[in-house]
Fold this sequence. Notes:
Mean pLDDT: 82
Oligomer: single chain
Number of strands: 8
Helix content: under 10%
Amino acid sequence: xxxxxxxxxxxxxxxxxxxxxxxxxxxxxxxxxxxxxxxxxxxxxxxxxxxxxxxxxxxxxxxxxxxxxxxxxxxxxxxxxxxxxxxxxxxxxxxxxxxxxxxxxxxxxxxxxxxxxx
Length: 118
């Protein structure tokens, strides 16, 4: 009986789930806001486990923008996607980026991005 419970427990938890990794990012001033491009990698297996977004935060954790990724990128690793119109408050020189996966949710790790001088 013990082995049956162990098997059921393993079957209900994602065996290979892990956080997406932000490999790099850039920010470009665009009109009154910023365009942020993020390169992600994730060992995607399809719809069961994929990187489904990333967001831009301040040092305090305030969310400035979120980029939703609507489908897996199994055959495109790493991949880069952008978010335009990010309103960065005056005086903020550092953005923090956080990735999300469909299984793990928001990553604990954040990627630091220094804004270029205007």
